[in-house]
Amino acid sequence: MTTQAAPNKLISGATGDWEVVIGMEIHAQVTSNAKLFSGASAEYGGAPNDHVSLVDAAMPGMLPVINEECVKQAIRTGLGLEAKINLRSVFDRKNYFYPDLPQGYQISQYKHPIVGEGAVIVDVSPSERITVGIERLHLEQDAGKSLHDLSATESHVDLNRSGVALMEIVSKPDLRSAEEARAYVSKLRTILRYIGSCDGNMEEGSLRADVNVSVRRPGAPLGTRCEIKNVNSIRFIGQAVDVEARRQIGILEDGGAIAQETRLFDPGRGETRAMRSKEEAHDYRYFPDPDLLPLEFDQPYVDALRAQLPELPDAKRARFIQQYGLPPYDAGVLVMERAAADYFEETAKGRDAKLAANWVINELFGRLNKEGLDVARSPVSSQALGAIIDLISQNVISGKIAKDLFEIVWTEGGDPKAIVEARGMKQVTDTGAIEAAVDAVIAANPDKVEQAKAKPTMLGWFVGQVMKQTGGKANPQSVNELLKRKLGV
Amino acid sequence: MSDPTHLSLAEARDALKSKQLSAVELAQAHIDAISKSRALNCFITETPEFALAQAQESDARIARGDARPLEGLPLGIKDLYCSKGVRTTAGSRILDDFTPTYESTVSANLLRDGAATLGKLNLDEFAMGSSNETSAFGPVVSPWRRAADPDAKIVPGGSSGGSSSAVAARLCLGATATDTGGSIRQPAAFTGTVGIKPTYGRCSRWGIVAFASSLDQAGPITRTVRDAAIMLRSMAGHDPKDTTSVDAPVPDYEAAVGASVKGRRIGVPKEYRIDGMSAEIAALWDRGAAWLKDAGAEIVEISLPHTRYALPTYYIIAPAEASSNLARYDGVRYGCREQGRDVSEMYEKTRAAGFGPEVRRRIMIGTYVLSAGYYDAYYVRAQKVRSLIKRDFDEAFASGVDAVLTPATPSTAFAQGEKGSADPVEMYLNDVFTVTVNMAGLPGVAVPGGLAANGLPLGLQLIGKAFDEETLFSLAAAIERAAPKIELPQPWWREG
């Protein structure tokens, strides 16, 4: 643990600089039809207790049977995290009493997880890339849900989630800022979604983070950490880190000490609150689950799963840089979602890839974000965007008109080429017509002509005027050339 | 035909097949016997209507020549096996009137093969006990009596005390039982019956209320070795719902019953000659060896050096697993619930009211040995010793021994209240010869070896290689043939 934050990541307190150290435990719900140890549906939603088998309800004499699909998903994910796959792992019981835990224990992997150490490369910003160590990944059961608001005197329990498979992905304490923490979770989510082992839906609780935060003076030993439980959005993860770091710095600067405890982040109040202290922590009495044999598979099993893995984001990004000559940052943005990367490649096929990348990133992503849509539901198909780009490349329309065209296709649909024809949006390349417009603008603005001769940057104003006159359809290059010649700049 | 309850399971099967007897007659005879034998307290729940309905179907099948292996044979089911639509208690108050919507795999196998089940048999609470005195439904009385003291109520052993007593009292032809540390073999030995705990993984545990998952195994208690072989063949088999059950073909065990034991090497472990072993038990053991020798087997002394650690090790591992397995009885979803001010108090009151003292003791022991700071010293060490015990057997079998012969219990049955009331360890010592078998996951059978001077039965135990129950059946049958025939007690307990 030698990683030290860059000076710009330090938090300045009243008595000097502080470094925040963050480690994360991500709980990712495994994408699978059935639960980890029962045949019941793992689907989200449904009426309370609709998706509950005898095993999930811990009826007497029921036994868990491992769902192989969940094992495969964990292995695939481990491979995606460049991690060691353990050919033998063991399921343990984590014992504690709670009404939403029917067995009285959670089946988890404690000493021998299915996946060991790995690494995730995270682009924090266009200019900063870090590597975050993965400590382990293990499989475990989710608990049910306690409902306390249905009755004044009783609590209710919904066991639909009880027994659903989770992957707990534990990072090393390699993160040094809220920004890094956000970028890490975002990258992990991307990898999980590429692999298809978790849908990454944080609103439905498919992805939740326990965030371990401590602070220290730069270069000093690790401070006492607090664990912020169950943070369920990337934005909240960043806020929780900042708020908790500030809280700890405040205590330390006042001469206090940090108590190791579990805390909850309250986004409404922008604060973390103590849940339970170390002294109140459960003694989980872990021991190997005698109902389950150790989980064993061989290397060829792993290799077969590896062979079926899709191209993962880092490899795709590298390929985009190499194959399409894209700037690394743009490539990184395009590969964030597999569907978006596919969309880009369809759009770029046989076209100017950089132009395609610009359009996908700036126009398409911008518009999708505004509407809160994902790329799969884009009203503009990759074929349509490709057609728009073709019209630009063939000088049929200008970039500005292309944006109007994009808007029309977005709202009304239709074939871009036909729309351009039908609505007379074609670029004017007839120099005669452009020249007439240029002459008219020059004639109408003799004072500006004088100014422009002294200050050539005025040329832009003239270009704008000509474009206005031609309804934006004039070829900007021709306009520029004509103006330069006529104004003598 | 004279009283059909006096038939062995195999004889009844043959009588039904040859239509000397109808399944309904056979079932009714047992139902009548049960109704007159409530003084023994063998059954927690009787299901006569179900048994008769099954018997009627059996008669129809026999009539059309479509009989299944256990067609029309009346059996009892230990109340640790979940029975669909029949209250299942595990001998505990905590399950209250819990009625499963499912049938345990093993009892379903018996029903599949045509058995008529008479009801649910009493047992020590959650199978924790060696005398059937821990049952929330009262102790079971053995049909056996001491010659000199006929008024003392003798225990039928435990935890399958309802099973052993019912089989010995001819209330059923055979019964299911379970064995975690000796709970089939010790009650069989105490009642002059045959009980086999098969290899761990031979029978499915699905639907059987769990005590200690790594040790629990289902098996039958019957009056003859052949009957045990017939029943086990139906009970055994792979079950995808229990991943610890083994996918291996189930042999025709009955065929092994008459097989010659000539040339078989029988190991006699010197470490089982424990301090204070009674002369009577030592003599029984010697007689057992002599009977097998007379049948052509070779007797060799072997060493199982870690035997003396088996009992303490067992009393760490079994309670540890039990403390976790019994956590589900929390008053939330089924069984009894005692209201409390909050959920913690509800748990405490429910479990205090629902569990009896022995179960509570074992939950506390198990919780303690798994606790942080004690886990390595107790549980981890116990697992290491367990590996050594298993290795002892592996080495003995590797040296050419086919089976191991020991006494089944250190004494004959005792009377109610005689043991364990002051010191629970006194009761735990009953398992001294049987727990090693569970620890090693091996098959073990208890077979009658005659009567002691006090008039109560004595049992011998044979321990086999994993999945070699066949050798045990042939050896047990050889002892059964050689041993003095035990006359089961006359029904002094019957009312009316």
Summarize the structure.
With 489 residues, chain A is an alpha+beta fold. Chain A is built from 15 helices and 16 strands. Helix content of chain A is 38%, strand content 19%.
The DSSP helix count of chain A reads 15
Poorly predicted ranges of chain B:
none
Task: Fill in the CATH topology of the domain at 4-261 and 436-482 in chain B.
Answer: Amidase signature (AS) enzymes
Cα radius of gyration of chain A in angstroms: 29 Å
Helix content of chain A: 25-40%
The oligomeric state of the chains shown is heterodimer
**Structural class per helix/strand content of chain A?**
alpha+beta
Rg result of chain B: 21 Å
Counted by DSSP, the helix tally of chain B is: 16
Question: How many beta-strand segments of chain A?
Answer: 16
Rounded to the nearest angstrom, the distance between the terminal CA atoms of chain B is 22 Å
Secondary-structure class of chain B: alpha/beta
Global mean pLDDT of chain B: 97
* Number of extended strands of chain B: 11
Biggest sheet descriptor of chain B: 11 strands, mixed
- In the CATH scheme, the class of the domain at 4-261 and 436-482 in chain B would be Alpha Beta
- Portion in beta strands of chain B: 5-15%
Give the arrangement of secondary structure elements.
The complex is a heterodimer of chains A (489) and B (496).
Chain A: E1 11-13, E2 16-29, H1 68-80, E3 88-89, E4 92-95, E5 105-108, E6 118-125, E7 128-141, E8 145-147, E9 156-158, E10 165-171, H2 178-195, E11 207-216, E12 226-231, H3 234-253, E13 261-266, E14 271-277, E15 287-288, E16 295-296, H4 299-307, H5 313-324, H6 328-334, H7 338-348, H8 353-371, H9 382-393, H10 399-412, H11 416-422, H12 431-444, H13 446-454, H14 459-469, H15 476-487
Parallel strand pairs in A: 12-13
Antiparallel strand pairs in A: 1-2, 2-10, 2-11, 3-16, 4-5, 4-15, 6-7, 7-10, 8-9, 11-12, 13-14
Chain B: H1 9-17, H2 23-35, E1 43-46, H3 48-63, E2 74-78, H4 105-112, E3 116-121, H5 161-168, E4 174-179, H6 185-191, E5 194-197, E6 217-222, H7 225-235, H8 253-257, E7 265-269, H9 279-294, E8 298-302, H10 310-325, H11 343-354, H12 357-370, H13 376-398, E9 403-407, H14 424-428, H15 435-440, E10 444-451, E11 457-464, H16 469-482
Parallel strand pairs in B: 2-3, 2-4, 7-8, 7-9
Antiparallel strand pairs in B: 1-3, 4-6, 5-6, 5-10, 9-11, 10-11
Helix pairs in contact in B: 2-3, 5-6, 7-16, 10-12, 10-13
